[in-house]
What does this fold into?
Amino acid sequence: MGLPHLKDDPHLKVLRPLVEAYLAFSRIDNRHIRMLRLTPSQFDVIVTLGGTAGLTCSQLSSSTLVTKGTLTGVLDRLASKGLIRRESIAGDKRRTKVRLTEKGHALCEKVFAAHLAYIRPFFERALSQREVETARRLLIRMRNSFQAREDGQS
It folds into this structure.
């Protein structure tokens, strides 16, 4: 039995452009975030906390792309910059709520608006509004398929 004609596989024809698009986006995205004097993980946490009354570490971990092992260090650095504060949750000494400080809220508004203005033209050049919705739906479906496999579902 010979090797199948992989270059003819319709699913594999999606894989390379998908990975290349992610890598290209990631380079541009991370470079701009670093120009804003933040790491990508710090930016993710600040923007996720923005507009909330605070989140627990567990909620932050599941709402960001920051791994649980990295989150504590990111929070420590943000706290040392005066951008977040940790508060004990009444009745549960093991859990804390993480909130943006006033300085953190001001930075969130500034960097989020600047970053959105920076990356928006890349999307607008590539996709119509209708295509954005289609791409979003398809990417979510793909993500869910891979996550179902991780979770032990077929």
